[in-house]
Amino acid sequence: MKLPKEFANGIIIFAGIALYFFIMEFFGLSNILFLRAFNAAFVFYGIARTLDSNIKEGKSGYVTNLLSAGTTAIIGVLLSIGGLLTYIYLRGGDQYITNNLSGEMLFGGKPTANEYCIGVLFEGIASALILVFVAMQFWRKKMSTAN
């Protein structure tokens, strides 16, 4: 059975983000806040794959593609947050956040693992939706010529 393209591309987003953060962790860079912003490239890549696939299938409606791209981004973010929460608990839970992750990103104090992941979830959904709208503007010309 073939996975829907939105789910398959969401898995690609998750895999890219996971690999990127494992590399950052390996080199001891996981506490550097601005390096985390580069995970947006993986989200944009997954969204672009979905939109490209839709265009090739002849789906040129703006709302259809907007929902498809949004679904892809949200699936990628949810899988990534689930992976992050699992990883944090495997590495020691709240103590891992205190010692290795930058808690000042979202909170002033010492967040728990769940609080940290909820904060990152809201941040991830917001940035994913922004990337969806940016991608839709980027792909709008291709969608209008597909008609």
Task: Please describe what this structure looks like.
Helices cover 73% and strands 0% of the residues. The protein has 147 residues and is mostly helical. The protein has one domain (5-13, 39-145). Helix 2 packs antiparallel against helix 3 (62-90) and helix 3 runs antiparallel to helix 5 (113-145). The chain is elongated. It starts with a helix and ends with a helix. The relative contact order is 0.16. The mean pLDDT is 86.
Instruction: State the secondary-structure class.
Output: mainly alpha
Shape verdict = elongated
Q: Distance N terminus to C terminus?
A: 30 Å
Report the mean per-residue pLDDT as an integer: 86
Largest sheet: none
**Count of discrete alpha- or pi-helical segments spanning 4 or more residues:** 5
- Uncertain runs are none
Number of domains: 1
Q: Helical amount among residues, as a percent range?
A: over 70%
Radius of gyration: 17 Å
Provide a compact summary of the structure.
By secondary structure, this protein is mostly helical. Helix content is about 75%, strand content about 0%. The protein has one domain.
